[in-house]
Specification:
Among the domains are: 103-214, 7 Propeller (Methylamine Dehydrogenase, Chain H); 224-334, YVTN repeat-like/Quinoprotein amine dehydrogenase (Methylamine Dehydrogenase, Chain H, 7 Propeller), CATH 2.130.10. Helices cover 0% and strands 54% of the residues. It has no helices and 29 strands. It has strands at 15-19, 24-30, 33-38, 40-46, 52-67, 71-76, 80-85, 90-95, 104-107, 113-117, 120-124, 130-134, 141-144, 151-162, 171-184, 190-195, 200-204, 209-213, 223-225, 231-234, 240-244, 257-259, 266-271, 277-282, 287-291, 297-301, 308-313, 319-324, 328-333. The strands form 6 sheets. The chain has a 7-stranded antiparallel β-sheet with strand order 2-3-4-5-6-7-8, with no helix packed on it. A 6-stranded antiparallel β-sheet has the order 13-14-15-16-17-18, with no helix packed on it. The radius of gyration is 19 Å and the shape is globular.
Length: 334
């Protein structure tokens, strides 16, 4: 039976529907402008006033997207890396010489940008200097450290830590298996990767001590840090899983918190930028807002026809963008 959460507070009536017209693969905010990344060719920009603009950015599928609040950088199967601002102005940052798929992108401090094609990772500083790193296998994820130009590159059997501006050899963090995503903690002390298996792996960067976060029913496809980096919120189960990162050892030897249990898979999580609240999107279309201090829930979207595929908070936390696999979308104004 589908869980409607009929007995909890609701903000569903505050939703402004958006007809994306294509599967939504990611959502971000450029100031007060919501950006719905569509599976093919375009971005849909929706202003706070409800005005919609469809911006073509790629000549095919959009495979990756990252945002720093000022611009959104996308990678496509047309071999291009494109940056787009809130006015809908797009600039091609790079075009792969072999027209290979750009399947990972990341934005770092000071306007640095990284992307990958096949077994190569590229990094470009704000000054335009570009570097390339050869990896042992296809790149599975990219993540910049919060300070300085240091890039974590996830791949088969581990992660490579790379300073593109330095001549020193990259550092290797090894763990067997296929690492398909990477995320640095806000304080720069921890690195976490998602894997092909239903598990996460992490390292404390000061000494390379590693940790395994398991117990999931499915592959973890979405994860993010709560405000201040106190918790790592993750999908991959029929509830919201939160790993503690308050101490110097992170989740080592600790069990996660479990909130918002349902009968279906949690597919997407998005952490509020100002409060310890997490939006959770489920495979039946349900979206819940979960307050961490007491586990209280607010209904943000009722179950619908397709899984939730994307969630994002505005910088102030006053709006939540929701996208689904069938092109249904909305903007919740709180």
């Amino acid at each position: 039976m589908t869980d409607t959460r009929a007995d909890i507070p609701s903000v569903v009536e505050r939703t402004r529907p958006v007809a994306a017209g294509a599967p939504v693969v990611a959502t971000h905010f450029l100031g007060d402008t919501a950006v719905f990344v569509l599976g093919e060719e375009a971005l849909l920009l929706v202003g706070k006033d409800g005005v919609e603009r469809r911006v073509p950015v790629h000549g095919g599928a959009i495979l990756a997207a990252a945002c720093d609040g000022d611009r959104i950088v996308t990678g496509g199967d047309d071999g291009k890396v494109v940056a787009t601002d809130a006015q809908g102005e797009s600039t091609v940052i790079a075009t792969d010489q072999k027209r290979r798929w750009i399947d990972q992108v990341a934005i770092g401090p000071g306007g640095a940008v990284a992307w990958s094609a096949g077994k190569q990772a590229y990094a470009r500083t704000a000054k335009g200097a570009e570097r390339v790193l050869e990896l042992p296998s296809t790149v599975g994820g990219l993540a910049f450290a919060p300070k300085g130009v240091r890039l974590a590159v996830a791949h088969y059997n581990g992660v490579t830590l790379w300073f593109p501006n330095a001549q020193s050899a990259p550092e290797k963090l090894e763990w067997k298996g296929s690492h398909l995503g990477a995320l640095m903690s806000p304080d720069g002390k921890f690195l976490v990767t998602s894997m092909q298996e239903p598990t996460l792996h992490g390292w404390r960067l000061a000494d390379g001590k590693d940790m395994r976060m398991s117990g999931y029913g499915a592959r973890v496809r979405s994860l993010g840090w709560t405000v201040g980096g106190r918790w790592l919120a993750t999908s991959g189960s029929t509830q919201l899983i939160l790993w503690p990162f308050q101490g110097k050892d992170g989740p080592m030897g600790k069990t996660p918190r479990i909130l918002a249990p349902t009968e279906v898979q949690a597919d997407v999580v998005a952490c509020h930028p100002k409060q310890e609240v997490v939006a959770v999107g489920y495979s039946d279309g349900l979206v819940l807002l979960v307050r961490l201090d007491d586990g209280a829930e607010v209904l943000a979207r009722k179950p619908a026809d397709a899984p939730v595929s994307a969630l994002a908070w505005s910088p102030t936390g006053s709006m939540l963008a929701i996208g689904a696999e069938d092109g249904a979308a909305g903007l919740v104004v709180l």
